[in-house]
Amino acid sequence: MVLADGLGPTPLNSVLCAPLGGDVRIEAATLLILAAAGQACSGREESMPPPPATHVPAPPPAAVRLGQEISDAQVVPMTQLLSAPEQFNKQAVSVVGFLDPPPFNCSDCGTVLCFHKEDADNRLFENCLGVILPDLSKVSRLTHRYVRVQGMVSVARYRKYISVSISDVRQIEAVPNREQWAAGLGAQ
After folding, report:
1. Do 152 and 129 meet the contact criterion of CB atoms below 8 Å apart?
2. Which residue of 22, 62, 154, 165 has the fewest C-beta atoms within 10 A of its own C-beta?
3. pLDDT at res. 14
4. Distance CA 46, CA 32 (A)
5. Burial of 183 from C-beta contacts in 10 A (0-12 / 13-18 / 19+)
6. What average pLDDT does the segment 112-121 reach?
7. pLDDT tier, 157 (very low <50, low <70, confident <90, very high otherwise)
8. What is the pLDDT of residue 76?
9. Quick check: 111 pLDDT over 60?
10. Could you tell me the fold of the domain covering 64-182?
11. Under the phi-then-psi rule, with left for phi > 0, alpha for psi from -120 to 50, and beta for the rest, what region is 123?
12. Three-state secondary structure call for residue 83
């Protein structure tokens, strides 16, 4: 509500809008308010905030070579290796997955290469392969991330269970994440 000429409250739409058939009329009080607001705002010098600094992601860790590279290693999707491991038994493969070290409180557990990070977090071992490493300390900077592992597939049967692992690991390299990939940073 706006007070017009001290005659009492006047609805705002009647102050700003003219009747359909009449002249356009803006009251003097409204003009004074608009002029005062314009004057108050025109003297301000507000600068725009600076643009955010461009974030350059750190490159992924360097690859770890644990032996001579296998030149004829077959690139195999994790899904294919998990669904039909016998096809790749005793063959050299290169496979990508999430490398999860054994928990500190488990001496019998081993390092696993999981399909997804969530599989490692929730210990869904049916979506994981065992990774037999000679020395975990050499690859510790590559754990808890997606990596490409090159080695030999080893399939063993224990009663009704099948154990699939990558043994004789020759190379482990970090897979760049989305930010690193967009910035053109690959494995060092």
Report:
1. no
2. 22
3. 53
4. 24
5. middle
6. 92
7. confident
8. 94
9. yes
10. OB fold (Dihydrolipoamide Acetyltransferase, E2P) (2.40.50)
11. left
12. helix
